[in-house]
Each structure stands twice: as C-alpha cells, then as structure tokens.
Automatic annotation (TrEMBL):
This is MYND-type domain-containing protein. Residues 1-42 are annotated as: Disordered. It comes from Symbiodinium natans. The lineage of its organism: Eukaryota, Sar, Alveolata, Dinophyceae, Suessiales. Gene3D superfamilies: 6.10.140.2220, Leucine-rich Repeat Variant. Keywords: Metal-binding, Zinc, Zinc-finger.
Amino acid sequence: MGAALPAGLSSWMQSSCRRRQPAGASSRNAAPAPRPPGVPSAEELRDTWLLAVQEEDAAAAGYCARICESLRGAEAFAATDGLDAFISVAMGQSTKGSGGGLMVALAQALMMDMTAFKEAVFETLCAAAHWPSLKGRIAGSGVLGVITATLLSPRHPASVKALMVRLCGLLAADSLEAISLGDPRRAEEFAKLRGQLISSGGVKAIVSLAATEGLAAPAAATTVAQLACAGDTAIRSELLQADAVPALLRCVARMSEAQSEETADDSDVEMEEDTAPEAAAAAIARLLAFEGDGCQEMTYPVAFITAPLCEELLAPVLQPSALKDFCDLLHVSGKRRAVEQVLRCLELAGSRHDAWPPLEPELCEDLRKMLVFRSDVAANYLQALHGHYGAKATLRCFGDLKSLQRALEAYSLPSASALLESLAATQACGQCGVIPQNLMACGRCGQIAYCSRECQRQHWKLHKQACSQKKEEPA
C-alpha cells in the first residue's frame, strides 16, 4: 500500500494478530498491545476511512465497522464524513478509474463477486444502522436497492447474503423507539422502503432463506420478526403470503433432525452448530410477545395482536399440532438455549393467546428436568400451567412431588414461591409423593396419607416416631 497506516489502526492490527507468548516470557513481552480507545480522534478516524476508500483496504474498513459498534463511535465516524463516504462506495462510487454510480453498483451486485473491502463497507453500514440517529440517514440514501440486488443474486456466498438480510431488516424497519415518537414523515419514508423491498421480491427471498440450512438462516429469521413487528399491513400481508411463520416453524423443527444426525455420526469430526432453530424460535417468541415487552409503555401506534391480519399470521403457531411439536422439542438435549426459546413460545402462546398443549406426564417430566438445571423459563411456564389447569391437575401430572419441591427450592422467583405454597397446601402420598384420586390417611394419627398400603409400609420406619408422639398427645 502506498499510504501509511494510522497509529490506532496499526496498533489494533498488531493486537489482533499477536500470538500468545511462550511460557517463561517476560511480563513486558507477554502484555498484549493496547487496544485503541473507545472513540479515536477525528483525525485518526478521517485518516482511517480515507485509507480504506482510496486504497480499498479491507482491514481499514473493518476497523471502521468495529468503531461503529458503539453509538459514540458511530456518531464520531459520521461526523468525519466517513459514513457518507462508505455510503457512496456502496452506491458504486470509486476513487479509482472513471464512472460509477447506482447502475454500476447494481450491475456489480448482480454479476461480480463481492470483494473483502466491499463486504467490510457493508458491515460498517450494518453496525451504524443499529443506531436510530443514523438509521434514517443510511436508509434514505437509496442503498437498499444495491443491498436487495446483492441478496437476490445467486452468485454470492451465504455469508454475504446473511449480511444483506441483516441490512434489509435494519433499513426497512424503523426502531421501536423512533416509531414511538410518531413522526409521520419518517414513517412514510420507511413505508416506501418496505414497499421497495416487497416489489423487488426481497421479502420472499428472506423468508425462503429462513427455512434453509445455510449461514443466512439465523439472520433471515430475525429479520422476519423485525419486519413484522416494526412494519405495517403491507409488509405483514407479504409475510403472510410468503408463509413466513410456517418457514420459521420448519426451521425450529430442525432441532430434532440435528440431534438425530449427531447421534448417527460416530466420527470425531466436530460439526458446526446450527443456530438457525434457536433464532427462528426467538423470532416466533418475539411475534407472540409483541404486544408487551415494553411496546405498550412506548405507546406503540399499531395494535399488533388485535389486528385480524396479524392473528392470521400467527395462526400456524397456535394450532394444536404446532404446540405438540413444541412440546416434543423439549426432549432435545445439548441445545439448552434453543429449548428455552421453544418453551418461551409455549408460555407466550398460552399467556397471551390462550393456546395450551395437553397436560401430559411427558411435558411435566421435561419441565422437571429443566428446573433441575435452573431454567427460569421452565418455572414461569409451570406457574402458567398451574394457573390454567389448576393446582391439583398440574401437580398430579408430575407424579413425585418431592423431587419437584427440591428443584423449586433452589429458585428465588415469585413463580417458584407461589408453586411451593401450592405444593405445601396439596396433600400427596407421604412415601412416593404422587397425588392419586384417593388417599388413605394414617389410622393412628390421621396427619399423613398414602396412595397404597405398600407405600404406608415402606414409610413406617420414618413415620413411626412422629406418629407415636402424635398419638400420645392429649386431645
């Protein structure tokens, strides 16, 4: 390269590439190179993005992306005209050669592979677009057309498509904080962008990616929820026609398929974890929870849950077959975060939409196992089942209440405390802890009951002393 690296960029690259020092090295040599400060100086930022643009330096552009991950860094980057420069690059402008512009950028998106430098430029725009103060500036630049063309082109790898999907979600859906301000002009501009995404076929492409097994699937699942929650009737109608929610459900169902493949594979080759089912379950949970989670406090203007179109969009999740499939996925081992997202979907389907699965021993056993591993979601869902089906029906389905009590005693949640109170008020077999239809009280003291004579006989060694003392107490 003809230009020298700025000091901050040089130190960052050195710290990123520095190898671990061997044992016995001096503390001076073992200390890692200092990372650049939270927000570099304006001169350093300007020198860095100028180097990136003039030399098409991917490392310098990547440094700008890292800076934009914080709000202060992103606003400082924009203040030095770096954001406008990167938008121009994304739109086809170049300091090398002649020509350029939107048509060139669209042609490059459709017919040319994306360079590492160009990918880093879009990563920077993606990082900056997370912040409401900069989101509208990027969205209004017209760069969404280039992003959509890149998404629709079959020549780009999954990593590039994932990046484009994330940008579509960020630039076509405004933040809830900005929506709550009720700016009609801003809302109209974002509605136009969603219309552009619909007319180009971008929404259907995103939905199709959500059901695939590629790297773009997690980003696509998240973007579907972004568009539905921060969109309007037009985008939700498009999501409905594209079968967005069934695509998410198919993605979630891959949890069990992945476990079967892992069980069947006896090789020592470490397979990359598929995070798409977890992202899809989180997206479904976000749709089910949209009316709450702070949206009401922000006076969000769209009544998502009560709109008939949105009820139709969510209908596949609330079907008994879908709820049963969710319950079956609770058996999957080794994917705790994904399983907890599935359980959150079940809890929200019941508490927000009154859709409950049958109360079966298999479901209760899965909840008991999750409680042992300190799952707050499991404790909350058990409390929800307790409120819907009643204390006696829910606790009877668990069988042994002693192990359930031990699991709940480790929690400090209000839901766990309420369940422990219910357990204390419920009479169960003194030996096995189950709640049968009929209990037989001890004939001597009448203070404990059993489900069978066999349980009474087995428990007599423990109960004998207390029973005798109770019998000897004066009436």
